[in-house]
Design a protein that fits this description.
The chain has helices spanning 29-38, 53-61, 76-86, 104-112, 131-135, 181-187, 194-199, 203-208, 230-244, and strands at 3-9, 23-24, 27-28, 45-50, 66-68, 91-94, 121-128, 141-144, 150-154, 170-180, 214-217. With 245 residues, the chain is α/β, with parallel strands linked by helices. The strands form two sheets. Strands 1, 4, 5, 6, 7, 8, 9, 10 and 11 form a nine-stranded mixed beta sheet that branches. Strands 2-3 form a two-stranded antiparallel sheet.
């Protein structure tokens, strides 16, 4: 199976314009993400997918494979689908461009889901215990069945954990996805769904149309960059890792 890693990268962002090009210790953030992906030997090729010439030019300057895509895509998945029409591959992994410290093993964990030949759509989840994170609408929660197939995703707390006060494990959805090519091409043709619109979560489009999403538990986490002030946290972590080596 030929596995392609794709890092969608948009310049426009309401909270952090130009985020993929944000400077982290002298290199653009997208470069750091790309380097982490190169550590995953299971990925046969890695590409940045962008609709912005500034990002395209920086990727070229730093020796990264990059594909210019349409500026009309509604989501990173739609951008991934365009890449799949230009690059041959059996499995496409959508890696977030704002996680410069993504743990390579997380990508390997995701790819490993597809050892089960019945899986065509996969993602990750991680248990959370911090009450503030659990309650935050920015934290997407997921519940799964006994096969680790998703039952539902929500920005609300699920399970509600209110009956009889019995504690229950709560999982945060880790926003990294992988798709077999045939399913990816099917998914991007589906019209936006009602639950997707209500929750603001595109993966619900698949569930609402009867498709399964395997969501494997990972023990790893990453530092996402949502705001400019998060850059300092990433730089500190990189310097700590470098000094420990």
């Amino acid at each position: 199976m030929k596995i392609i890693g794709v890092i969608p990268a948009r310049y426009q962002s309401s909270r952090f314009p130009g985020k993929p090009l944000a400077d982290i210790l002298g290199k653009p953030m997208i470069w750091w993400v790309y380097q982490q992906c190169l550590k995953v030997r299971e990925l046969d090729e890695v590409y940045v997918a962008t609709d912005d010439e500034r990002i395209f030019n920086i990727c070229t300057e730093f020796g990264m494979r990059v594909i210019m895509t349409s500026d009309q895509h509604r989501s990173g998945t739609d951008r991934l689908g365009e890449v799949a029409t230009k690059v041959s591959g059996d499995l496409f992994v959508n890696i977030q461009g704002d996680e410069p410290l993504i743990e390579p093993q997380m990508i390997r964990d995701l790819i490993g889901i597809f050892d089960d030949q019945s899986v065509y759509y996969g993602s990750l989840r991680k248990q959370i215990t911090d009450e503030a994170e659990i309650q935050a609408p920015s934290t997407v929660k997921v519940v799964v069945d006994k096969n680790e197939d998703a039952l539902y995703f929500s920005r609300s707390v699920i399970p509600s954990n209110v009956k009889d006060g019995k504690p229950v494990r709560i999982y945060r959805h880790v926003g990294i996805y992988a798709y077999k090519r045939d399913f990816l091409m099917t998914f991007i043709q589906l019209p936006p769904s009602e639950l997707e619109a209500v929750e603001g979560l595109e993966q619900l489009r698949a569930l609402e149309n009867g498709y399964k999403l395997r969501v494997h538990e990972t023990q790893f986490d990453s530092i996402g960059v949502d705001l400019p002030e998060h850059i300092a946290l990433v730089e500190q972590a990189i310097l700590r890792n470098q000094s420990a080596q």
